[in-house]
Amino acid sequence: AAPISLVLATGKLARRGIVLKEAGALERLAQVDAIVLDKTGTLTEGKPTMTGISALNGAPSSLLRLAAAAEERSRHPFADALREAARRAGLVVPASSAYAAYPGKGIEATVDGRSVAVGNAGFAADRSWTIHRSLHGFAAEREAGGETIVYAFVDDACAGAFALADAVKRTSREAVDDLQRQGIRVLLATGDHPAAAGKAAAMTGIRDVRASLLPEDKAELIRKLQGDGSVVAMAGDGWNDAPALAAADVGIAMGGGTEAALDAGDMTLLRSRLTGISEALLISRLTVRNIR
Ligand code: ADP
Ligand code: MG
């Protein structure tokens, strides 16, 4: 049977909305000296809104209509944002077919008999699509402000860009401060581009930032830190975080996250606030000290 102090600690955590899959996770948590945080949906609310459109030819609303249709089947927060923007604009969004998703890059589908793709610059590069130079100014300005740009391509030709903004959670700054005060090294790891990553890091006091990572790169970062002798926790919400959550010594899933993240994690923060991590860390350290 588990020592009584572990049982008590588990109850204490549960009252704070922190659920452990097994008691062993608490003992590993007490040893953690580095934490990797995902950005979208973990450090930020993960509910981006579309804040601007730059359409190359034709009305911005026609481009939004096509993009929202192509994103119909995607569960990515950007897809939700584009569909929501189309709904608010009162657009009638047509059905789409032949949907394909490219993790960390974008999506593609057939709309009105045309091939419509929405994704980032890396996605465009993979397909040898050129981002039209008249979009460079729009993209640079929005990215400097911490927003994210996704591009739209219709029948392999650049058609425009969308800007998306995602707010940092109110509790994230305090959580990062608490962790750093406890002597924990905090890193930000994201699939988003360096400017958006840098802005979120600056707003929360994180100094070590890794951007433009694919899901497997996040897991590789965890293994690298472990190779350097760290005991590593990883917090994330997306299916794209699942490999890293599984690789970490303690995987921490956000309660509002995807099934894949919840499955891969050792611990769940039901309230999706990162302050739960520093609380859990303190409790784990006190508990393990009592057992030993
Ligand atoms: P994060 O690590 O921040 O959670 P993701 O790996 O989910 O990010 O996505 C990385 C990037 O891939 C996004 O910033 C976006 O540019 C692009 N992307 C992924 N899915 C989509 C989609 N459905 N629509 C548009 N862009 C997408
Ligand atoms: Mg995420």
From TrEMBL:
Keyword Ion transport: yes
Keyword line: ATP-binding, Cell membrane, Copper, Copper transport, Ion transport, Membrane, Metal-binding, Nucleotide-binding, Phosphoprotein, Translocase, Transmembrane, Transmembrane helix, Transport
UniProt KW Cell wall biogenesis/degradation keyword: no
Primary location recorded for the protein, binned into one broad class: membrane
Cellular localization per UniProt: Cell membrane; Endomembrane system
Family that this chain belongs to: Belongs to the cation transport ATPase (P-type) (TC 3.A.3) family. Type IB subfamily.
Protein name per its UniProtKB record: P-type Cu(+) transporter
Species this protein is from: Paenibacillus artemisiicola
Lineage: Bacteria, Bacillati, Bacillota, Bacilli, Bacillales
Complete-protein stretch covered: 385 to 676 of 735
